[in-house]
Specification:
Blueprint (H helix, E strand, L loop, with lengths): L1 H13 L2 H10 L10 H8 L1 H40 L1
């Protein structure tokens, strides 16, 4: 029995992060616990909700910053052209 647990640990170390995440949600490597995806997500609890909120807000902030930068560059170019012609 001890040999089985050590070989599973070595197998998990050999897999990449994406393969382990994918395996967790697809349950190809684990026994089927009879839960649906939604029930499994609810079982994870508050940590899942908080991490989703953090990722969502972070992506929103990055996109707003990029949009702000793009519009400010465009406005500066237009103002430079207008002032230079005057």
């Amino acid at each position: 029995m001890a040999d089985d647990s050590s070989s599973e640990g070595d197998n998990n170390k050999k897999q990449g992060l994406w393969a382990r995440v994918k395996g967790y949600f697809l349950l190809k490597e684990k026994k089927d616990d009879g839960l649906t995806f939604k029930q499994r997500l609810a079982k994870m609890g508050v940590a899942t909700v908080l991490s989703y909120g953090m990722i969502s807000n972070l992506s929103y902030a990055i996109l707003v910053a990029l949009a702000w930068y793009g519009s400010s560059v465009k406005v500066c170019i237009v103002l430079y052209c207008i002032l230079r012609l005057c």
